[in-house]
Amino acid sequence: MGRTSTARERLLEAAGDLLQTRGYGSLGVAEICTRAEVKKGSFYHFFESKQALTAEAATAYWHQQRACWTAELAGPDPALIRLRRVLAALTAAQHAHKETNGTVDGCLLGNLALELSTQEPDVRACLANAFDEQTALITATLLTAAAEGDIPPHHATSATARAVIAQLEGLVLFAKLRNDPSVLDTLWSGTLLLLGADPDRP
After folding, report:
1. Burial class (CB in 10 A: 0-12, 13-18, 19+), 83
2. Within this chain, do residues 59 and 37 fall inside the same structural domain, yes or no?
């Protein structure tokens, strides 16, 4: 009875783990079911396809990430300090995964976006929504930073926010390629350059 009640959650968790380490194309429903300890027939009771499960797994991943983003971006500190906190938290997560598992597995959202490209429109729509939410969160932070006089107003735009996200995802990609999270150590200095902020600020 207990297993039945948690089967859906186990499938989502298994899919998230396997998508992170294996990718989408080489992953089959049978392998996901084996990892989740759920019978393949039961899979289709919860999800109509691997695509549907992947879309939900990506959304669940972002919901967990978003809790971190909103927590680190909240509070009375200056906006740039709050932005640095969220980037530091994301960097720390990559270091922690390497220490625990021996690998840098990157960002599930970025991994899927690169792999799927023009495939699986439903999954890509979920990814686009997650990145749009990230862009909105950073844009709001940049607008506050500009109002506080820490960055030029013309840098407080959604285009700059997307550039910050692109730099983050790009460095995560290189960290994954080299299996070395220290690649991310330049993230903050690079972000300050993108923002036109004082490069010597703490």
Report:
1. buried
2. no
Alpha-carbon torsion (184, 22, 116, 31), positive or negative: negative
Containing structural domain, residue 43: 1-47
Same domain, 78 and 54: yes
d(CA 107, CA 174): 12
N-terminal to C-terminal alpha carbon distance within the chain: 54
Handedness of CA 81, 84, 86, 88 (dihedral sign): negative
Residues 27 and 103 in one domain: no
Burial 68-79 (b: 16+ CB within 10 A, else e): ebeebbeeeeeb
Q: Which two tokens stand for residue 194?
A: 């993108």
**Average pLDDT for consecutive 10-residue bins of the chain (202 residues)?**
70 93 90 92 91 95 94 95 96 94 92 89 94 98 97 97 97 96 95 89 64
Total number of domains constituting the chain? 2
Residue 113, both tokens: 């976006």
What are the angstrom distances between the C-alpha of 8 and each of 3, 24, 26, 40? 9, 19, 22, 12
Q: Which two tokens stand for residue 115?
A: 């792999």
For the question of whether the overall pTM of this predicted structure is more than 0.85, the answer is yes
Q: Which residues contact 90 (CB under 8 A, 6 or more apart)?
A: 68, 168
